[in-house]
Amino acid sequence: MRHLSVPSRETQSILCQLKAAAALPEGARVRADPTDENRRLIPVIDSATVDLLTHYPVIHVDSPPPSPRSYRDHLNNFLSQEIIESVDWPTRHEFVGDLILIKLDTSQREYGDAIGQALLNQHKRTRAVFEDKGVTGDFRVRDLNLLAVREGFSPTTRTKIVESGQELWTDPSSVYYSSRLSHEREGTLECAKRIREHLGRPISVCDPYAGVGPSLLPLVKESGLLGESFAGDLNPKAVEFLHENIGTEKFTIECVDARTLQSTDSLREKFDLLLVNIPHDAIQHIPDLLPLLREGGVVRGWAIIEDEDFEAATNSLTKSLGKDVEIEVRRSYSATANLCRFESQIYR
Ligand SMILES: C[S@@+](CC[C@H](N)C(=O)[O-])C[C@H]1O[C@@H](n2cnc3c(N)ncnc32)[C@H](O)[C@@H]1O
Q1: N or C end: fewer C-beta atoms under 10 angstroms in the chain?
Q2: C-alpha to C-alpha distance for 61 and 199, rounded to whole angstroms
Q3: pLDDT tens digit string along 188-244?
Q4: Do residues 255 and 206 share a domain?
């Protein structure tokens, strides 16, 4: 392909001129000029007739092959063209720390190893690839099957994730964690700061369904925000991660059924902010949790509500939390249900 050899310092302005003249090929890549370290090579399409072609040396070099844009571009290293063309390859996968989790249907599963290896080729920072066979049980953990692991590395499902600039350890095969709710967690930090401002002192927070602690970590890191607080989960593995991720003297951490906390005297009427992150059961659990709140304390929670149950759910939450409860649809959960957030009014 024709390339213009241009002085390095003029590269940007010449690129702009070529672009304006529609003379750049799709995905044009600027390269070093192997004959002169102070010059760059810019590709130009064959039909271009711009003036620049007469001002700068034009040389012919082979264009480098386009970089692979998806794991599918690596499948030919492992599978025949015939197979590649006969399968409907998965188009989505999820990154969890240095792992990739991917859902496969029956026809894709047969080529799981090749999919795993191709994903490792495409994503250099990924350590291992697992088939995600779905979420199971009350602890909402993933059933994972190893597809590929980078040579010399461990196939463990334990991994470190970074959320809002902070590091957390998790293991999708034994504890719940989803990055999809990270935006909600940013809102929790803002909510906690508003309560502190209103009260003029550090606040006590109760997160009885804390998982590995993603809602609490930003609160811990915010200087002067937290007073004595509580984090719990019924899953013993999650509690181990809580100690590792947010274990500070500020927190009491326990492996306990949230609904039984009200029977512990030292926790009753103790908290300024109660988080209720158990979306499938929130509405049923709320009455058992309210005794943990101080007078005027704030509840912030999430519930999956079927469209046809929305009014009944609103009535139930209003009855439990008072008429000022705000319920907001946050995103669609299924064809007939939404994930909703509810928050009782900040202190009056
Ligand atoms: C939807 S997850 C939320 C986890 C965490 N708050 C987050 O945002 O990642 C719900 C958590 O509640 C825990 N759980 C389920 N039933 C519980 C119960 N009765 N009491 C306390 N924790 C429970 C599960 O183990 C899970 O970690």
Answers
A1: C
A2: 70
A3: 999 999 999 999 999 999 999 999 999 999 999 999 999 999 999 999 999 999 999
A4: yes
pLDDT reported for residue 180: 84
Distance 211 CA to ligand 1 centre (A): 5
CATH at residue 130: 3.30.300.110
Q: Which of 157, 189, 215 is the last residue of a domain?
A: 157
- pTM for the model stands at 0.81
Q: Could you tell me if 170 and 97 are in contact, meaning their C-beta atoms sit under 8 angstroms apart? A: yes
Identify whether residues 184 and 296 lie together within a single domain: yes
Residue 346 has pLDDT above 70, yes or no: no
Domain that holds residue 261: 179-343
Give helix then strand counts, H and E, for the chain. 10, 17
Which protein residue's CA is at the shortest distance from atom 6 of ligand 1? 210
Task: Note whether residue 27 is domain-resident.
Answer: yes
Q: Please report whether residue 65 resides in a domain.
A: no
Does residue 103 sit in the same domain as residue 51? no
Is 268 inside any structural domain?
yes
Q: Are residues 192 and 306 in the same domain?
A: yes
What is the mean pLDDT of the segment spanning 247-268?
A: 94
Average pLDDT, the chain: 93
Give the per-residue pLDDT at 243. Answer: 96
CA 134 – ligand 1 centroid, Å: 17
Q: Are residues 227 and 299 in the same domain?
A: yes
Structure tokens at 105: 């249907």
Provide residues with CB under 6 Å of ligand 1. Answer: 138-140, 176-177, 181, 208-211, 214-215, 232-235, 238, 257-259, 277-279
| Rounded CA Rg of the chain | 27
Given the CA of residue 235, which atom of ligand 1 is nearest to it? Answer: 25
DSSP H helices in the chain: 11-20, 52-55, 81-86, 106-109, 112-122, 182-199, 217-221, 236-246, 282-289, 310-321
What pLDDT is attached to residue 302? 96
Pair 108, 183 in one domain? no
As a whole number of angstroms, the distance between CA 159 and CA 105 comes to 25
Residue ending a domain, choose from 60, 85, 107: 60
